[in-house]
């Protein structure tokens, strides 16, 4: 669709938050008839009240199936609402298209899109690409999970822009024609299975980043990940593999501690300041996507020599009395915490725990060899205690909150130690977001006094 084709359409926006509000406002501006349905009661729902004042129909407090009887053209669903929700399930049964707002964003924008997905590393890679594309011929705009809602950015973007878009499996599952100019698929690891049900369904959702691409578009993918490589095999896009383990044709690889792209040297590993071996994968992916979109090698080199990381992702907080504190609150699954732990060789005080999604943590054992103290919190603290005990961690302390965890971490540490918040779990048992959890950690660290 173009912007004009939304005029007169009958649309239900299901669920507000930032993405729902942005989609509703955009569709209303484009001339669609918009009905908003949000679970939060009307009296407590300032978002819904403001949208109603703009002329939209608002139904709050429940999701009546009768909303589907109004000859809807499509539904824009908040990504967090699961597909087994009765109104979503019924809409699909009736053949009503159910999309997320990134589908809307891609349909209306004049800008080309670089879409980044994967179980881990999305935010770091998205930020790297954004920085690498600065000062190029087309100004980059960042959107999606990392920044402004995609459809807000898409409406304002011109053909002189490139939208660098971090996309989740939740968002991708609600796409029908979404086809970025460049897709980046970083890795696949068991995550969000409480939402998707099975690993296969989760993989299928992630794969939607490339299913509609053609030979005029590109897929930058991790050739070291079997599942990602299997997705690439059926993609119709131009394939740009990257690997930290082997030389790949027409792709990115490391040889003699130098990164190459299709035989051309880009930068030596010793010049890259971003910590962690796992970040080399993110760097390779970012270089590939950026070069395709016209970034200059000099700008890429500058970014890699100065970029130290993003907030809540192995973020260096401070050094205090010889202890170095790192905030990795965005590590919401086991693989993310494994990679964070592998970034350090020093004795480590690990702060971990959070929402219990039903998984065990045995895969974390091998990464705990240099953890001298584990401080656990949240719903998963007993599970983490079991795994750490089996891994030989000598000191394991359960706590109730972040402030207590940070204080104990300092007491248990010595000069030269790393204090690492890397929860391996989502935050929703105690905090609204991983950002809130990370902020509490940083504030607690800043409040320590020697």
TrEMBL record:
It is found in: Cytoplasm. It catalyses: UDP-N-acetyl-alpha-D-muramoyl-L-alanine + D-glutamate + ATP = UDP-N-acetyl-alpha-D-muramoyl-L-alanyl-D-glutamate + ADP + phosphate + H(+). GO terms for molecular function: ATP binding; UDP-N-acetylmuramoylalanine-D-glutamate ligase activity. Residues 312-425 form the Mur ligase C-terminal domain. Its EC number is 6.3.2.9. One of its GO terms (cellular component) is cytoplasm. Cell wall formation. Catalyzes the addition of glutamate to the nucleotide precursor UDP-N-acetylmuramoyl-L-alanine (UMA). This is UDP-N-acetylmuramoylalanine--D-glutamate ligase. It comes from Halalkalibacter akibai (strain ATCC 43226 / DSM 21942 / CIP 109018 / JCM 9157 / 1139) (Bacillus akibai). The gene is murD.
């Amino acid at each position: 669709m173009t912007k004009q084709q939304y005029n007169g359409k009958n649309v239900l926006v299901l669920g507000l938050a930032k993405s729902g509000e942005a989609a509703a406002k955009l569709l209303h501006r484009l001339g669609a008839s918009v009905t908003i349905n949000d679970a939060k009661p009307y009296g407590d729902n300032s978002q819904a009240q403001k949208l109603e004042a703009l002329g939209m129909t608002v139904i709050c407090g429940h999701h009546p199936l009768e909303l589907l009887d109004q000859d809807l053209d499509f539904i824009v669903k908040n990504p967090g609402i699961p597909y087994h929700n009765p109104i979503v399930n019924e809409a699909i049964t009736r053949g009503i298209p159910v999309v997320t707002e990134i589908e809307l964003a891609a349909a209306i924008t004049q800008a080309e899109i670089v879409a980044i997905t994967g179980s881990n590393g999305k935010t770091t890679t998205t930020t790297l690409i954004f920085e690498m594309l600065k000062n190029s011929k087309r100004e980059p705009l960042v959107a999606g999970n990392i920044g402004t809602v995609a459809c807000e950015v898409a409406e304002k973007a011109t053909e002189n822009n490139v939208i660098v878009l971090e996309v989740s499996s939740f968002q991708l599952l609600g796409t029908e024609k979404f086809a970025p100019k460049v897709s980046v698929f970083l890795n696949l690891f068991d995550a969000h299975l409480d939402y998707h049900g099975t690993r296969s369904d989760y993989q299928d959702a992630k794969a939607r980043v490339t299913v509609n691409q053609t030979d005029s578009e590109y897929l930058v993918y991790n050739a070291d990940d079997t599942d990602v490589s299997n997705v690439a095999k059926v993609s119709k896009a131009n394939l740009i593999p990257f690997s930290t383990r082997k030389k790949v044709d027409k792709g990115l690889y490391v040889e003699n501690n130098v990164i190459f792209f299709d035989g051309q040297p880009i930068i030596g590993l010793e010049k890259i300041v971003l910590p962690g071996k796992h970040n080399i994968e993110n760097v390779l992916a970012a270089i590939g996507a950026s070069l395709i979109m016209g970034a200059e090698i000099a700008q890429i080199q500058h970014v890699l020599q100065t970029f130290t990381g993003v907030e809540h992702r192995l973020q260096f907080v401070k050094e205090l009395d010889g202890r170095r504190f790192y905030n990795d609150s965005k590590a919401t699954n086991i693989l993310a915490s494994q990679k964070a732990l592998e970034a350090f060789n020093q004795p480590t005080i690990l702060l971990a725990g959070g929402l219990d999604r039903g998984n065990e943590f045995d895969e974390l054992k091998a990464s705990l060899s240099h953890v001298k103290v584990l401080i656990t919190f949240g719903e998963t603290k007993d599970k983490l205690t079991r795994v750490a005990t089996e891994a030989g961690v000598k000191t394991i302390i359960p706590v109730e909150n972040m402030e207590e965890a940070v204080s104990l971490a300092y007491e248990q540490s010595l000069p030269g130690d790393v204090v690492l918040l890397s929860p391996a779990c989502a935050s929703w048992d105690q905090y609204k977001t991983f950002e809130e959890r990370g902020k509490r950690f940083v504030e607690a660290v800043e409040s320590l006094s020697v």
